[in-house]
Amino acid sequence: MARAYNFSPGPAMLPEAVLRQAQADMLEWGGAGASIVEMSHRGPEFLQVARQAEADLRELLAIPDDYAVLFPAGGATTQQALIALNFADPGQRVDYVVSGHWGRTALKQLVSVDVNVAASGEAGGFRGIPAREEWRLSDDAAYVHITANETIHGVEFRPAWGHVPPETGKVPLFADFSSSIASEPIDVSKYGLIYAGAQKNLGPVGISVVIVRRDLLERAGQPRADIFDYRSQLKGESMLNTPPTWNWYVLGLTVRWMLDEGGTAEFDRRSDEKARLLYAAIDGSGGFYRNDVDASVRSRMNVPFFLVDQALDAAFLDGAREAGLIGLKGHRVLGGMRASLYNPMPVAGVQALADYMREFQKRHG
Amino acid sequence: MARAYNFSPGPAMLPEAVLRQAQADMLEWGGAGASIVEMSHRGPEFLQVARQAEADLRELLAIPDDYAVLFPAGGATTQQALIALNFADPGQRVDYVVSGHWGRTALKQLVSVDVNVAASGEAGGFRGIPAREEWRLSDDAAYVHITANETIHGVEFRPAWGHVPPETGKVPLFADFSSSIASEPIDVSKYGLIYAGAQKNLGPVGISVVIVRRDLLERAGQPRADIFDYRSQLKGESMLNTPPTWNWYVLGLTVRWMLDEGGTAEFDRRSDEKARLLYAAIDGSGGFYRNDVDASVRSRMNVPFFLVDQALDAAFLDGAREAGLIGLKGHRVLGGMRASLYNPMPVAGVQALADYMREFQKRHG
């Protein structure tokens, strides 16, 4: 088939311009006699690529100078383990707000700290986020952890929920932004630490981004391997050992593409439009399609939805594929469908999905 | 320039056939409507790629069924931290044999264990490996750790050193094989655990391989995050969270290429030939070029060498680049030059290097 509109939750659709550049560079990068994936990370060519990626990311997200940026290998779950090791003393209280599957998974990465689940949407099936007034925060916590957007449950901290980001007083706010980073302008200075796997809004799989207020790096934390120490990683420019160079390069291409498209203000506008199109198709279906998330926290990035009869699921997915719409099968935790609308997904793709949904309903409703 | 012979130590040269396949698949893989780097790791397409890569790696290395294989994100240094967490009880003795820079770095990844450096080549400038009879091993160690090949110091456990792998009695032998895996047939059953970053002999950067005897996974180890638990990773097929899919796919292509070329027996033969060519150029230079490693443990994979006058280094590197030979600058720890001769480096590349070295000496000797 031709290239489809790919609604995968991550790894996810990349801009075609980025893929074409990666394709063109695959055998040789910039007259250097080798592909980026073959080059030493210590050579001038890759260092240029890496530093440009950081400079562009700082521009895209308006990251203040008193924040450091790391580019660790792997995904966000590893960072969930490392933030506790780096920023909480042994036995120290840490506060977690759980608004979905990934917030709950974060708890499994914690050892040797005193975990306080300050609020959780679990009793309500993760359809909402408890109001800020209901959170039971600790004065002496090392940090408060939230998941800015829940990829599986489709729950996102949105302005309609209340003040975003939530106020946490003197305790720094740490946020997993894996599936919503760069989808709108944010005020980085309101956070102590932001982390994100890149494979949703920032480009390729296999690399993450950590944005951390520099003064927090002075904390002792827990005994840990040097490779797990953010301070060592910062000193080593995220190259204590060989970094995932190709992934870093594609991340850089994707960030550059986002800047060229108009930056986070433009993606905020597009995200609004895409979400409006899809939720309208669901809510206007008279119950044929259903999304159960509270309107105040409905995600613009990941939209889980269910057909009125799950016996229709297979036909829905088959027809979607024939219409050039792929990656719509829901996560096994929830079943049903899920459409992920990250920055590289064009408005036209979501329009095509909404059209298909109406047409499918006509045939099967 | 055209594609050069790339002697980089890792990331390193890949087979051109692998790069061409990755290039062809970059916009769409196998009629699936998306690139591999855009596809869900839970979809049938990527699962097929991942499982085929494991099957091919098992064939290439003749891995017995009672060994599990993991494909973690990131590099070998992370595994150096994880093996202590997974296989040593809190405070338990672990034995390390240090034969170069990376063996020494491994020590920095250890916390909450009782580290015994059983032998070290450091006093001799890492030019040799202490004889097995000199090792001070502990009867109650969780494991004995060696570095099969030292990428920077160019020191490798070779048959001329003595019995390889070294006998460790009832204590399992753990080995960092990052820079020599698949360069010759090995008897996996002699090891408790083998790990390797892929970016040298196994293909792309950003992913590692861990081969571990299954019964060792029953050990309690230390309190650790779920994402750092090899048992959880095995249960989750190395997909507890999003794995580095593209890197895994390129690893699979590279392993397939090695099988098609004749497997480890053939690469053993080629490695012998390449090493002989290069060491002959060094040893036959009358001191113009110098490699200081004991003949019994000279690496076939990484050959550090020095010019008689380091004022000539820049001219040597410039001339090499003009001759289509890149990646020869030595690691900052040692200075001088280093040529890495991993499986994708053809014999013709090493012949070209040896020819260039003789010609350079004629002009400057």
UniProtKB/TrEMBL annotation, chains A, B:
Pfam families: Aminotran_5
Cofactor: pyridoxal 5'-phosphate
UniProt superkingdom: Bacteria
Cofactor binding note of this UniProt entry: Binds 1 pyridoxal phosphate per subunit.
Domain Aminotransferase class V per the UniProt entry, residue ranges: 5-353
Keywords: Amino-acid biosynthesis, Aminotransferase, Cytoplasm, Pyridoxal phosphate, Pyridoxine biosynthesis, Serine biosynthesis, Transferase
Binding-site positions, pyridoxal 5'-phosphate: A76, T77, W102, T151, D176, Q199, N241, T242
Reaction(s) the record says it catalyses: O-phospho-L-serine + 2-oxoglutarate = 3-phosphooxypyruvate + L-glutamate; 4-(phosphooxy)-L-threonine + 2-oxoglutarate = (R)-3-hydroxy-2-oxo-4-phosphooxybutanoate + L-glutamate
A GO molecular function held by the record: O-phospho-L-serine:2-oxoglutarate aminotransferase activity
N6-(pyridoxal phosphate)lysine: residues carrying this PTM: K200
EC number(s) recorded for this UniProt protein: 2.6.1.52
Location in the cell: Cytoplasm
InterPro entries for the chain: Aminotrans_V_dom, Aminotrans_V_PyrdxlP_BS, Pser_aminoTfrase, PyrdxlP-dep_Trfase, PyrdxlP-dep_Trfase_major, PyrdxlP-dep_Trfase_small
This protein's pathway: Amino-acid biosynthesis; L-serine biosynthesis; L-serine from 3-phospho-D-glycerate: step 2/3; Cofactor biosynthesis; pyridoxine 5'-phosphate biosynthesis; pyridoxine 5'-phosphate from D-erythrose 4-phosphate: step 3/5
Binding site residues for L-glutamate: R42
Family from the record: Belongs to the class-V pyridoxal-phosphate-dependent aminotransferase family. SerC subfamily.
Subunit record text: Homodimer.
Biological role stated in the UniProt entry: Catalyzes the reversible conversion of 3-phosphohydroxypyruvate to phosphoserine and of 3-hydroxy-2-oxo-4-phosphonooxybutanoate to phosphohydroxythreonine.
PANTHER family reported in the protein's UniProt record: PHOSPHOSERINE AMINOTRANSFERASE (PTHR43247:SF1)
Protein name: Phosphoserine aminotransferase
Organism: Luteimonas composti
